[in-house]
Amino acid sequence: VYFVIDTTGSMNAEDYNGRNIRLDGVRSDMIALVSKLAGAHFSVLTFGRDTYLELPLTTDASAVTAIANTLDPEVTIYGQGSSISEPLEKLKQQVKQAASRNSDRKTIVYYFGDGEQTSSDTPSSFASLSSYISGGGVLGYGTNEGGKMKEYIGYGEAGDYYITDWTVTPSRDALSKINESNLQVIASQMGVSYRHQVKPGDVDSIVAKIDLAKLTGESKDINSRHDLYWLIAAPIVGIVAWELWTMRDLMASTKRSKRSQS
What we know:
Blueprint: E1 2-6, H1 22-36, E2 42-47, E3 51-58, H2 61-69, H3 88-101, E4 108-113, E5 135-140, E6 147-148, E7 150-154, E8 157-162, E9 164-165, E10 172-173, E11 175-176, H4 180-190, E12 193-196, H5 212-216, H6 229-261
Parallel strand pairs: 1-2, 1-4, 4-5, 5-12
Antiparallel strand pairs: 2-3, 6-11, 7-8, 9-10
Helix pairs in contact: 1-2
């Protein structure tokens, strides 16, 4: 399961579920999806001006939750126009590698964003992903009325002022509005559904059609699977411990021999 998250400045707009920021909705929905898809491998990518692999594939749900709880928007001064297709190439690279390593597993992609295209470039098509993924969804945040955005200065600190729209006279607080048309296009290109998320944790409809057993690559109850790396690690740890113990005895014997000679 790949979570692809828009962290551009517009995701700091205060028009989700009242006056909350859009990233609050993303956090809530990510955690709800992790709970619904227990047993899967999860990966997290975020994008603003660039795309970052925040978390490689892991079954550690707590790691995904930790990232969800610490999601921050892009630092305002770094925002130089954003594209909704910025994460496409890195995401495609990740899903292709996963498919080559685990052909028996299904790949699910969830794209979280507001669809706002502020770059002058035409967005690239996500259609090339459709042959690699078996489901997922595009989740949209924000309102048609729009919301104001406080500047973000980094290190978990919001600024004291709202971002200003200098393109109008007189200048005023900038408004970011959801672009559902763009999000619906992405969903159509990937072959998944689009859903406008307006309240926390409402994800049932976008996981209802997923075969969880195929997602985890097993036919058993997904909650029963365990990583088996310890079966390999345990003997190695035992050998290392034995060698350390042997070296300790040898060093102690050498010291006693030296003391007796002196």
